[in-house]
Amino acid sequence: MNGRLWAGLVLLGGLGLLALAAPWAEHLLGHDPYQPDLFARYEAASATHPLGTDELGRDVLLRLLRGARVSLAVGLATALAAAAIGTAVGLLAAWRGGVVDAGLMRLADGLLALPALPLLVVLAAADLSAIGLSPDLAGGDVIRIVAVLAIFGWMGVARLARAAALSTLALPYVRAARALGASEARVLARHVLPALASPVAVATALTVAGAILAESTLSFLGLGIRPPLPSWGNMLANAQEMVLEAPWQAVWPGACIVAAVAGAGLVADGLRGR
Amino acid sequence: MAELAGWVKPAARTSPLARGRVLGVALVATLVAALPAAAQTRPQLTIGITQYPATLHPNIEQMAAKSYVLGFARRPLTTYDADWRLACLLCETLPSLENGLAVRETTPDGKDGLRLTIRLRADARWGDGTPISSEDLRFAWDAGRAFETGFGNAEFYRSAYELIIVDDRTIMLRFDRVTFDFASMGDFQPLPARIERPRWEADRAAYRTRTAYDTESTNPGLWSGPYRVTATTPGSSVALARNDAWGGPRPAFDRILVRTIESTPSLEAQAMTGQVDMIAGELGLPLDQGIALARRAGARFRLHVQPGLIYEHIDLNLDNPVLADVRVRRALLLASDRATIAQRLYEDRQPVASGPTHPLDPGFDNTRSPAPFDPAEAARLLDDAGFSARGPDGIRRNAAGERLSFEFMTTAGNRGREQVQQVLQGQWRAAGIEVRIRNEPPRVFFGETMSRRRFTGLAQYAWISAPENVPRSTFHSDEIPRAARNWSGQNYPGFRDAEMDALLERLPITLDPAERRPLWSRLQAILAEQVPVLPLWHRADAHLWPAWLDGVRPTGHLAPSTLWVEQWRVR
Amino acid sequence: MAGALIRRAGQILAALAVLSFAAYVAIGLMPGDPIDLAIVGDPRMTALDAERLRALHGLDRPIVARWWDWFLRALSGDFGHSRLYARPVATVLIPALGGTLVLVGMALLIAVGGGVALGLLAALRPRTAPGVEALSVLAQAVPAFWLGILLIIGFALGLGWLPAGGVPDQGDAAWRFLVLPVATLAIANLAAYARHTTAAMAGVLGQPFIVTARARGAGGARIALTHALPNAAVPILQVAALDIGALMGGALVTETVFARPGMGRLLYEAVMGNDHPLALAAVLLVALATMLATAAADAAQRVIDPRIGG
Fold first, then answer.
1. Does C172 touch chain B (CB under 8 A)?
2. Residue B25 in 3-state DSSP?
3. Strand B253-260 and strand B42-49: pairing?
4. What distances in angstroms separate CA A28 from CA A31, A47, A48, C207, one per listed residue?
5. Other Cβ atoms within 10 Å of B349 Cβ, number
6. Of B12, B412, B437, which is closest to A245 when you measure between CB atoms?
7. Which end of chain B has a smaller Cβ tally under 10 Å, C or N?
8. Nearest-angstrom CA–CA distance, A66 and A92
9. Closest among B428, B437, B438 to B395, alpha carbons compared
10. CB contact, 8 Å: A139 with chain B?
11. What does the alpha-carbon distance between residue B135 and residue B191 come to, in Å, rounded to a whole number?
């Protein structure tokens, strides 16, 4: 079982290293992934451009590395945000029980039942400056996507967290600790939260995969990360429009997305199987 | 008119995969050539377009897909033709002061007025055989004048204050002003009163939801062109069949199927598999994709690139204190190498523009040429404007330490525009000017950011216009959108120039074309001096016709090539 | 049972009412109303025209009042008029829903059928398990729009076996137009069923009654089909019910790539094109379909496994 975990971690770790290597690779190759060169469009792979150039003559490899930063950041940030919301909701529901539990779980069920993609479209097209998110903020686009994806990503975590918290709260030693007068905060922090780690980790890994895929889909619909910031999703969506003319342009970002999503999926499987 | 969905896309080289396809297609073409010559007619022509017409009512909502489909099935009174001259389609003679069908007069309240006599062609009839009559014109006029009907072009119906029926197919229309383009008559065209008037009278405000054009589109009585609509599949296709009541030459196809395929790679794929015979230039592939497809499948398709009246440009917000300085605006223009973009991305099929007036337009001053790429002069202008020092990031700063930096917006998801934007960003960075790209989906960009002037720096989009269209709404100081005017008007840069205002007021009422010419020249000169807008190019359409089709004449302006479908011939 | 059904129906209706309000407000708060866009489209529109148009369309009233009007009319079956398609919303939605249901239904059948088959294969022939797993990890990781384009390039352009998309015209064989879109939609979802089947089978195969059956001499395939599979059906059913919503949403991408009219694309266009009545009705319809599917799955589960109480 742990083979999967390792395979997933190696995949994700490798992509992460690539993302970190972006500035170094830029230095080594000596060009700027943002600077178009109209005289070098759609160049084939060469020593100067190991993976060739894109429709504006920019180095595909360097853009993939920069895109790795954006795509992985979107995946991780979304997963962390979803995990935080989901854990909090699940814990609260399990701990308070009664009406709070029923209400929160109804909300989660309701959101799960909704067709997520069309609603993502609604949210992604909305103007988030209305709720105080400045569009000028550095990485504002990443925050916009993460916020939109996290809104639809926390329910799975919440359900798992609630189930785990409920069973932990029912364990004899936890009940004993409570009976002995340990404060509720201490019980939750010392006994319940650690028990949530494993299910939440599984759900988080799955959310990473989902978020990277969702970003590419939003890019395909013209609502994802916007240029000039590269993401695998917008590179793939862009290449897809000229796919009959320059098919290999779509290969690399597509492969990166598949690798990252598969990696996150394997990590989730591995964690689950442990 | 600003447009809601644009496309400017670059060309690309032939891929290995594509080369394989070209060979395959060439082989097929050779085999086909060996067969006996095709007959004069074909059972069916399938056309791919990228938009579905929202409504089929000629007067409700303006959109390219609707006008393309209606071109087959209904005829307007007049239109601009492929030579950009006004021509009669349903009328007998184009009214003019010389032929006496247009007469200057004074309106009851003492203004300069005009009386037009419009006579419908004797052979004009609806698809059910009923002749098109003065009553049909009267109904269109009645409905257009009632605001609640919701027709566009309210200005025309306000100005056409009286309609007099002379006989069955002759009317007189009186206007309370005299403009040189009086014979174009806006969108005014006969509507089948027999079918439509009762629906309109029953509930005027709900007419737009009850019109037979949308509730029973296949009623032959609605259609006056060589074809009539026989089936609609919302979002997907409109089928047309020959209209037997049509009095003109018999068109070449029994059936025409107009298919909507929004995703351009899918449209290309369907063209290559033969599911689509032709791709309409009016609403088809971006220029670069069109050029590329023609290169891959040259044996099957003929590419025609039609220069058009869609002016791609960048608005500068003149209320921005830095952009208020004309030297900075000129520097932006001179520091951008637009000629290289046009050459590399569009293979020079879409040349750089000198201003909003198209070179084919009668008002074009042919002594003008596009501003050159002159980085040295741009640098001098920026030095003069106070941005002489370069920071460690290479961006210019003024004495107060402010960086020379602007926000640059366009419609998100439009690949072609986003490409040009990124190339310009690189070119300006080299000149020490930073532009920060921030794009929005079209409905936000047009519906809010532009119309409320919420952009702070540069904004790239396109204006669509008609031949010799006076750009009053875009350059007159009265047309700057503001809350008090309900945000109407399209002078988004906020351009104010007394001489420009005077020109824009004089141009429409100067009836002699020769007298208009110096006015047009002056207008272009002011725009070149003041640079409220950075010109890019006039967009060219990529028409892809099957190799066996002849006689399609695209216009490059709003009138679609389908208005002359009876001249399309099978080779 | 009847009580549970009524309670469930009540829950669904209440959820729809709440959702309709949330969606109305969310769509209504998006910048750029139809009149703004009309002003952009008609340069000669005056300030007065804009104001009158807003009043004519009722856009000058508060959004809550507009929603309430809509809600009351919706209760009487009138969902309004689509601006984009110039016809009553219901007449636009019903054909689109039909198209999507065919697509989603076939994709779901193939995904469940193929997934269960693969899962059984992996459970019964452990040597194939790594291959099946690799396949399912990959299938889940491919962006659907990319897969769609790859299928078009391969099967429509390359081999020329199937149309590149679109809808059948008179005389075309309808099924040929369904193959590629259904495959695109099914492949991504197939993986989940394969995994659930494998997992459920692994769980069931170790249980005493299977061991007993095996001891009595029953063959592997027989055990799998008669004993283990029915037990694995419950989780698979649950996943399928939850998938319906995702599939109907995911149909948006498939429908766009293959130029098929349907709910997904309709919803997308309604939102982007400011067609409030259509967008709202479409969101509610998709949500309703999802909730009905979930309810049906719950009911089916009770039939299969009576231990679960209502």
1. no
2. helix
3. parallel
4. 8, 11, 10, 59
5. 20
6. B12
7. C
8. 39
9. B428
10. no
11. 9
Amino acid at A171: L
- Among B44, B236, B463, B473, pick the best mutation site for testing chain C contact (most C Cβ within 10 A): B236
Mean residue pLDDT across chain C: 80
Answer for the pair B111, B177: CB distance below 8 angstroms, yes or no: yes
Q: Which residues of C touch A112 (CB under 8 A)?
A: 242, 245
Q: Which of B15, B407, B429, B435 to mutate to test the interface with A (most CBs of A within 10 A)?
A: B15
Dihedrals phi, psi of B170, to nearest 5 degrees: -130, 135
pLDDT digits (tens, 9 = 90+) for A35-84: 888 888 888 888 888 888 888 888 889 999 999 999 999 999 999 999 99
Percent pLDDT > 90 in chain C is 3
Q: What is the pLDDT of residue B8?
A: 28
Q: What is residue C219's predicted lDDT score, i.e. its pLDDT? A: 65
Alpha-carbon span A107 to A101, nearest angstrom = 10
**Ramachandran angles phi, psi of B538, nearest 5°:** -90, 125
Per-residue burial over B78-91, b = 16 or more CB atoms within 10 Å of its CB, e = otherwise: bbbbbebebebbbb
**pLDDT grade, residue C309 (50/70/90)?**
very low
What the block records as the tokens of C192 is 């989940």
DSSP string, chain C: -HHHHHHHHHHHHHHHHHHHHHHHHHHHTSS--HHHHHHHH-TT--HHHHHHHHHHTTTTS-HHHHHHHHHHHHHTT---EETTTTEEHHHHHHHHHHHHHHHHHHHHHHHHHHHHHHHHHHHHSGGGHHHHHHHHHHHHHS-HHHHHHHHIIIIIIIS--S--SS---TT--HHHHHHHHHHHHHHHHHHHHHHHHHHHHHHHHTSHHHHHHHHTT--HHHHIIIIIHHHHHHHHHHHHHHHHHHHHHHHHHHHHHTT--SHHHHHHHHHHTT-HHHHHHHHHHHHHHHHHHHHHHHHHHHHH-TTS--
Residue that is written with structure tokens 């062109």 in the block: B225
Between CA C286 and CA B262 the distance in angstroms is: 23
pLDDT at B11: 30
Q: How far apart are CA B285 and CA B51, in angstroms?
A: 11
Contacts of B121 (CB under 8 A, 6+ apart): B88, B90, B91, B92, B169, B247
From the list C89, C252, B235, the residue with the least C-alpha distance to A223 is: C252
3-state helix, strand, coil in chain B (%, to 5): 35, 20, 45
- Cα B424 from chain centroid (whole Å): 25
Q: At what angle do helices A60-96 and A232-241 cross, to 10 degrees?
A: 130
Q: A244–B344: do the CB atoms touch at under 8 Å?
A: no
User: Which is it for the CA torsion C212, C218, C221, C222, positive or negative?
Assistant: negative
Residue C160, pLDDT above cutoff 90: no
Q: Which residues of C touch A259 (CB under 8 A)?
A: 141
Integer distance in angstroms from the first to the last C-alpha of chain C?
7
Query: What per-residue string of b and e applies to B552-566 under the rule 16 or more CB within 10 Å gives b?
Result: bebbbbbbbbbbbbb
CA distance B454 to chain A (A): 12
Exposure of B21 in the CB half-sphere (CA atoms within 13 A):
28
Q: What mean pLDDT is reported for chain B?
A: 88
